[in-house]
Amino acid sequence: MSRSRRAVCVFCGSRSGGLNDYEADAEDLGRFLAETGYQLVYGAGDVGLMGAVARGCMEAGGETLGVIPEHLIAREQGRQDLTRFVVTETMHERKKVMFMNSDAIVLLPGGAGSLDEFFEVLTWAQLGLHAKPILLLNTAGFWDPLHALVQHVIAQGFAENSLATFYELVPDVPTLGRRLARKLDSGLSR
User: Fold this and answer.
1) Please, where are the H alpha helices in 7-155?
2) Which one of 82, 112, 184, 188 has the minimum C-beta count within 10 Å?
3) CB neighbourhood size of 176 (10 A)
4) Domains of the chain
């Protein structure tokens, strides 16, 4: 797949969560991506935060790449009216296609799947396999426990101090937008 514009992979929940702020931030992020000319790369679902980020992006005229494994099309209501829609055989292939077609990763609130996606790209960064920025939108402090866990892993000697430098917590969409622009438009990694 060739692409001409910067693309941002958004990992997020297939549920909306318990706070309205989660969905509002997802829609705001989608609009931001469209308005600044970044392509949205996401899990192709039309449910939960996935649906919200896609809705925000598409309503603002943005380009979208949705990637979904065949077995989740019905469950996640695979949205096929995207700019590009890719169906994979496995979850692992889905993550690979999303990662390979993006210049940065953003993690919104989510569950086990979002954590799996985060830890895979974090591990790849730790191993030197990529230097793409990883930003966690910390809506209402959602990712504070995850950051505390990473700090605990470091404190207990299971990772170098550098592990916490491979991602950045950001408090809101405007801050996230500024950080993405600075990192992507200037060619900076992390």
Assistant:
1) 20-35, 48-59, 91-100, 112-126, 144-155
2) 112
3) 24
4) 7-181 (3.40.50.450)
Cβ-proximal residues to 35 (8 Å cutoff; 6+ apart), any chain: 60, 62
Longest dimension (CA), the chain: 47
Tens digits of pLDDT across the chain (190 residues): 444 589 999 999 999 999 999 999 999 999 999 999 999 999 988 889 999 999 999 999 999 998 988 887 776 666 777 888 888 999 899 999 999 999 999 999 999 999 999 999 999 999 999 999 999 999 999 999 999 999 999 999 999 999 999 999 999 999 999 999 998 877 655 5
Say how far apart CA 92 and CA 173 lie, in whole Å: 28
- Cβ atoms 6, 98 nearer than 8 A: no
The DSSP secondary-structure symbol of 83 reads S
